[in-house]
Design goal:
With about 350 residues, the chain is α/β, with parallel strands linked by helices. It folds into 2 domains: about 230 residues, Type I PLP-dependent aspartate aminotransferase-like (Major domain) (Aspartate Aminotransferase, domain 2, 3-Layer(aba) Sandwich), CATH 3.40.640.10; about 90 residues, Alpha-Beta Complex (Aspartate Aminotransferase, domain 1), CATH 3.90.1150. The protein is about 45% helix and about 15% strand. The protein has a 7-stranded mixed beta sheet, with helices on both faces. Strands 9-10-13-12 form a 4-stranded antiparallel beta sheet. It has a two-stranded parallel sheet with strand order 1-11. About 50% of the residues are buried.
């Protein structure tokens, strides 16, 4: 039985065309700014996001952390939505690497300008300065939700009134682009720094890109070096990123359609999808967590639990429409087994 892997959109493998691009990439020493393929990737990313400059980094976590370090000072407070990746899944990097605190605001991963205004600390000696607002778009733990553009623009205006910087964790930014038709540059415009992952929906094997003004990217580059992110002849990986940006953005619409079909099928089986999927994630509830894991793995169906009784299924390049129907057939067997 073929394994159907819905654990994440990070599990994809390079396509033959991507492998060919990687194999033929021209390389040089990126630490000396001499890798032409890395330079091309960075120029392409900056252009797509409407920023002056960009920097290739090994991971989305490093991308977020070098931005937080660049935009804050030790002791500062960083605002983020509930369930933010920068808080939950980066091993306390903001505290360990930048010496800052993260304060969550809003509900369900989203927040608005009023939440920002009410959370700003007084400019008084007893309080840590609130200096940075981070937005995650799309928002993972809320089910791949798209952060409304109007809310972002209002948040940015309020943050600027209070002298705060803004960072966009756009790990899956291009899912928001494809789902809404709003360009990446428009999503990125309010932010000082923006990260996006090449290794998630865009299906490259590794890497993320940080975009921003030249001054900010210069400081981000120093932070990348501090954290051990300087890379040498890395053009092969950058070539995968270029191929992803040039060939794998529009096809994200397939993942979104597959997620909607999967959610409808889960509902028909008596499972509980947590809302209509906006992008490529389907969160759903099942009470028998251990039994569900046992029965799905026995059928080579890989879906991860995210919390007690809540699972996440993620659609991606390596799961097509036929695979969704196959998965739903296996899930019907799983539910039958659990009901005895």
């Amino acid at each position: 039985m073929t394994i159907l892997d819905f654990r994440s959109d990070t599990v994809t493998r390079p396509t033959p065309a991507m492998r060919e691009a990687m194999a033929g990439a021209e390389v040089g020493d990126d630490v000396y700014f001499e890798d032409p393929t890395v330079n091309r990737l960075q120029a392409l990313a900056a252009d797509r996001l409407g920023k002056e400059a960009a920097l290739f980094v090994p991971s989305g976590t490093m991308g977020n952390q070098v931005c937080i370090r660049t935009l804050t000072r030790p002791g500062d407070v960083v605002m983020a939505g509930q369930g933010a990746h920068v808080l939950l899944y980066e091993q306390g990097g903001a505290a360990a690497l930048a010496g800052v605190q993260i304060e969550t605001i809003g509900t369900g991963g989203l927040f608005d300008a009023r939440d920002v205004a009410s959370a700003v600390h007084p400019d008084e000696q007893h309080y840590s300065p609130t200096t940075l607002v981070t937005v995650e778009n799309t928002h993972n733990t809320s089910g791949g939700r798209i952060f409304p553009l109007e809310s972002i623009q209002a948040i940015a205006a309020t943050a600027r009134e209070h002298g705060m910087a803004l960072h966009l964790d756009g790990a899956r930014l291009f899912n928001a682009v494809v789902a809404t038709g709003v360009s990446a540059s428009e999503w990125a415009a309010p932010f000082d720094t923006v990260t996006f992952c090449l290794s998630k929906g865009l299906a490259a094997p590794v890497g993320s890109v940080v975009c921003g003004a030249k001054e900010q990217i210069h400081r981000v580059h120093r932070a990348r070096k501090l954290l051990g992110g300087g890379m040498r002849q890395v053009g092969g990986l950058a070539a995968a990123g270029i191929h992803a940006l040039e060939h794998h953005v529009e096809r994200l619409a397939d993942d979104h359609r597959n997620a909607k079909r999967l959610a409808a099928g889960l509902a028909a089986l008596g499972l509980e999808p947590q809302g209509e999927p906006e992008t490529n994630m389907v969160y759903f509830r099942i009470e028998d967590t251990a039994g569900f894991l046992r029965e799905t793995r026995a059928r080579d169906l890989w879906i991860n639990p995210m919390e007690a009784h809540v699972f996440r299924a993620v659609t991606h390049l390596d799961v097509d429409a036929d695979d969704i129907e196959d998965a739903l057939g296996r899930l019907a067997e799983v539910m039958s087994a659990l009901r005895g």
